[in-house]
Amino acid sequence: MSNLSRRIFLLGGLTTAGAAALQLGASAQPSAAATTPYPFTLGVASGEPDDTSVVLWTRLAPAPTNADGQGGMPDADVAVDWQVSADESFAAPVASGTFTARYAQAHAVHVLAGGLAPDAEYYYRFRAQGFVSPVGRTRTAPSPTTVGRDFTMAFASCAHYESGYYTAYRRMADDRPDLILHLGDYIYEGGATTNGVRQHLGGEIVSLADYRRRYALYRTDPDLQAAHAIAPWLVVPDDHEVENNYANMVRADSSPVLTAAQWTARRTAAYQAYFENMPLRAAATPIGNSIPLYRRVRWGTLATFHMLDTRQFRDDQACGDGTKVCADADLASRSITGAAQEAWLLDGLGRRLGTWDLIGQQVFFARNVNSAGAMNMDAWDGYRASRARIQQGIVDRAVRNPVVLTGDVHASWGNDLKADYADPASATIGTELVCTSITSGGNGSATTAVPNGSLNPHLRFYSDRRGYVRTRITPAQITADFRSVATVTEHGAAATTARTFVIHDGKPGLADA
């Protein structure tokens, strides 16, 4: 066990039984609690920090992968105690309380811990049924009127369980970032295969029980638990949290066969399970078959995070999915965000709330055309008028430092955003950093040649390895490290930096470090 794992799983001990459980592991049943199995098998998490509060999360699940999705818990609500402390000893907690974990929400816990100091580090833990949870580390944002300390933010996407081990999550935790963004495909909905590094349980997930069980399977992974326990997260889903390549209420295909009512029920179940398993504020509580997720999170005067939802409100992919030549992608009526979210984004960018405007979203933003003139209809290339409106809005509002943060494509990319992609000499108006996948796509290769690079000179960097992006953000610059691991089919690979770029304040685009 690494030092980080030991710290996360051994710190704290409100009761003797709880301390014994932490030392013996999630399956331990100490004699003091012999009739009650350990409930914190899914670890702990925090998220959505502002300058005085943060969401604390856990879910009680002594048998996490039971097929009924209830994690082995009885049909009863359970009281869960929680504590926040400024140090790891918990000698003088600064906040505490009791939360009722309800059977109807699969005993998920969402505590809004308030009254905290700005720009401060904290530790937290839970107690239930005679056991103590692992200890998590979290922090608050700076006051909205102060810059705050320089900070490290990492972001990731696309963690297919069957494709490999979550070593990249562990290496991210080793970096001890101040904030982690997850930009979609936290789970995958497909059924078990026979050729994966490890296997899903059951067939393709459709029901609420299915989705709950799938999240539980993923969250039993110790490397993912370590990444959740080391820092607060901001999350947005992409498609696989529901179904591959869906668009608003339109399915990409008819597999599995579902009636309209069954598809609506599937979306409803998927969003409920997503909320239950993420450290989200109550404002993101699902409403029927939708979930309110686009939001702004301020990090003092240093940065503003504009977290987008490019699935629930988009028009269906033009000309069907896939990479193709499609004139309909230029139709002014088409949008990947929907009109309301587009207006919300441009309004927020125009406020200039921080030195850096960081747009966390799901799919490839810059133009990426191949030799046949074809583009990916599931990316912003399939919604070119929508992209043009946002880019023109950035120019019109004189947004000083727009940086798009992207997942989805299972490879690392570093891109300049151009006023006119057909004219390489046109102004660079922003920057895009694309993280590779955690595991999706398998090990990848050592390839670093930019695909179709001669046709897209604004695409500056490419890597086919798995990993994440680590950024260090100051008022003067963002330093972006593209971190990668050589293998995910074997556990424990080291992480290396494939390339480092700098984005200077007031100078959009990538510069060599």
UniProtKB/TrEMBL annotation:
Transmembrane domains' residue ranges: none
Ranges of residues in domain PhoD-like phosphatase metallophosphatase: 153-482
Signal peptide location: 1-19
Record CDD domains: MPP_PhoD
Tree of life domain: Bacteria
Coiled coil: none
Domain Phospholipase D N-terminal: 42-140
Keywords: Signal
Cross-referenced PANTHER family: ALKALINE PHOSPHATASE FAMILY PROTEIN (AFU_ORTHOLOGUE AFUA_5G03860) (PTHR43606:SF2), PHOSPHATASE, PUTATIVE (AFU_ORTHOLOGUE AFUA_6G08710)-RELATED (PTHR43606)
Protein name: Phosphodiesterase
Organism: Kitasatospora phosalacinea
